[in-house]
């Protein structure tokens, strides 16, 4: 599975503490495997983000992404609910 990371995603990821970074890695691996994805709570976003999707890392942290035409994924943002602003 091809996943590319936006520069903003990388900056936000680097600002997370090491424990949260480990959780993000773990959830990305679940996403890549395609197994047990219901635990990620993948959902379409609304409003100005209607062409994007999101999933849960934990109760507080989310990942925003889009599916590329070639079948890969572009991870846009990672963080708390401020990533939806």
Structural account:
This protein has 85 residues and is α+β, with helices and mostly antiparallel strands. Helices cover 29% and strands 26% of the residues. It is built from two helices and five strands. The chain has helices spanning 7-15, 18-33; strands at 3-5, 43-44, 53-56, 62-67, 73-79. Strands 1-5-4-3-2 form a five-stranded mixed β-sheet. The protein is globular. The model has no long low-confidence stretch (mean pLDDT 94).
Task: Report the sheet with the most strands, covering strand number, pairing sense and barrel closure.
Answer: 5 strands, mixed
- Number of E strands: 5
How far apart, in Å, are the first and last alpha carbons? Answer: 28 Å
Mean pLDDT: 94
Strand order of the largest sheet: 1-5-4-3-2
Which value, in Å, is the CA radius of gyration?
A: 12 Å
Helical content stands at 25-40%
Secondary-structure class: alpha+beta
* 3D shape: globular
Number of helices: 2
Q: Helix-strand pattern, N to C?
A: EHHEEEE
Q: List low-pLDDT spans.
A: none
Strand content: 25-35%
């Amino acid at each position: 599975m091809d996943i590319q990371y936006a520069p903003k995603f990388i900056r936000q990821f680097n600002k997370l503490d090491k424990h949260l970074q480990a959780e993000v890695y773990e959830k990305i691996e679940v996403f890549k495997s395609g197994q047990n994805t219901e635990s990620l709570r993948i959902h379409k976003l609304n409003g100005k983000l209607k062409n994007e999707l999101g999933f849960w890392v934990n109760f507080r942290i989310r990942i925003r992404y889009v599916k590329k035409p070639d079948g890969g994924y572009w991870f846009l943002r990672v963080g708390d609910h401020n990533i939806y602003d």
